[in-house]
């Protein structure tokens, strides 16, 4: 897990000012290494950021490519760290969303499939989310 100086260094290396909210959110996502919803992040960071500040913080970190967004079939955006040098989620792999409990996990050992894109198109982002039930929820049927 990264310390506060390393998280601050990561922010500054991406041209971002250090704020309590940015440091708290980035440290949380790097430490957890799995996609978290806005509500999950808000619960975890507590008073470090109000609702609006948290949305702005996540958008800023996303634009700086420090986090990426994954949209689940449930319509909820989840956020992961996007630092390839860390154990967190660099985003170049599929994700799995449990439709029963809502937990999303990174399937890090599996690369995204290659897709041939016509020359007239430009890909800006990619994601693949598999939907089903996690092991805990399968057993609780």
Report what the structure shows.
The chain is 35% helix and 16% strand. The chain is α+β, with helices and mostly antiparallel strands. Strand 4 and strand 5 form a beta hairpin. The longest helix is centred in the N-terminal third of the chain and has 13 residues. It is globular, with a radius of gyration of 16 Å. The termini are far apart.
Keywords:
single chain, 141 residues, alpha+beta, Arc Repressor Mutant, subunit A, three-stranded antiparallel sheet, three-stranded mixed sheet, 5 helices, 35% helix, globular
Structure in a nutshell:
Helix content is about 35%, strand content about 15%. The chain is of the alpha+beta class and about 140 residues long.
Largest sheet: 3 strands, antiparallel
How many domains in all? 1
SSE string, helix = H, strand = E? HHEHHEEEEEH
Low-confidence stretches: none
Furnish the topology, listing elements before pairings.
Layout (H helix, E strand, L loop, with lengths): L3 H10 L6 H13 L3 E2 H8 L5 H13 L3 E5 L5 E5 L13 E4 L5 E3 L22 E4 L2 H5 L2
């Amino acid at each position: 897990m990264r310390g506060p100086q390393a998280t601050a260094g990561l922010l500054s290396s991406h041209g971002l000012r250090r704020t309590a909210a940015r440091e708290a959110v980035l440290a949380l996502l790097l430490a957890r290494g799995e996609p978290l919803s806005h509500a999950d992040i808000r619960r975890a960071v507590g008073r470090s950021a109000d609702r609006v500040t948290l949305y702005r913080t996540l958008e800023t970190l996303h634009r700086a490519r420090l986090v990426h967004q994954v949209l689940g079939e449930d319509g909820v955006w989840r956020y992961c760290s996007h630092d390839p040098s860390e154990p967190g989620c660099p985003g170049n792999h599929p994700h799995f969303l449990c439709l029963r409990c809502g937990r999303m996990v990174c399937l890090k050992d599996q690369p995204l499939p290659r897709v041939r894109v016509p020359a007239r198109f430009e890909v800006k982002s990619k994601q693949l989310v598999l939907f089903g039930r996690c092991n805990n929820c399968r057993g609780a049927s």
